[in-house]
Amino acid sequence: MKIDAHSHMTDNGMPLPEMMRDMKAGFDTSGFDAVCFASDTSASFDAIHKNLLCFLYKLMFPQSCYIFVSLDYHIPGTRYDTYGFGAQAEMFAEIGVDGFHMYEGKPNARNACGNIPLTGEKYKSFFSFLERNNMPVSLHPADPPEFWDINYLEAYPFEKGWFFDDLVHSSYQEIWDEVLAVAKTYPKLKIILPQFGFLLPDLPKMAGILEKHKNLMFDAGPMPVFYELCTNNKDELRAFFEKYSNRIIFACTGVCNDFTRAHEKAEKAYAAIDSLGLQASTAKALYTDNFTAICPYKPLNTNALVDYCNFIAQRLDKCPPAPPRNATIHRTREAIDAIRDLLH
Asked: What angle do CA 246, 229, 295 make, to 5 degrees?
């Protein structure tokens, strides 16, 4: 059994729910028994419908889907006093989400959310609620350190707007200090750091973090450096996987807009992991058990989901026509209508 613990809910514009069936076919071809969607509503107004799309998928394929929602920052007509992060956590927990995905550790997403420190007052009720209710959070820890170094930056991240060594973005160390401070402040909160925390190939540093913070885990979302290590430093990487066999979670798909090719990532990841020659128990923990241990399956509460759909719809109904945002509003309403159709 294999669970992909980190697949972004992407929107390629296909009609709904046809797009969901296309995703499911891609995941099936990839050999996944289930996927966990990592939503990113925090990214911008254009992503306000991503949680809704996750709910739609789970309604259609309930036994093969987990949902890590993202906090709503860009819903019109909401403020911290009535729709703060603690209140959101409680509302989404009532719907039946499995956890939360925080893109807020990525510098440009952090700016889009108001540049609130992860240790800031506004997040305290949120993290406290998750800790009390045993809900995990996938927390994006900065980005690769070279994204702050113009001497090592390649063209692709620069073109994508992922260069952060300027006066606008938080520093690499500042974000990491906050991530580790959250782990220390909420020691029972299960925190998953995506893509090995972008710390490969510094395995000793990764080991030090796991030893100091027992509530942290890495998701093994593969990056080019991972494949390099599987070839050039296989023994050390195997030893790391075996020693921390209960602290690493399989992840694979990430961002994918063409699900007819999703299997290509999976096949490459399987081959690399197989090349390590892990013990059967370690491989089983990696692919399934470590995730399900902190994330037992939950059904959706459809009454609470209807309330959330109505909440979003009512606020969009008050928005004046604005051509730059009309497409996002239309797509969000399309998602709401698709959910309502399935529930009636």
From this structure: 25
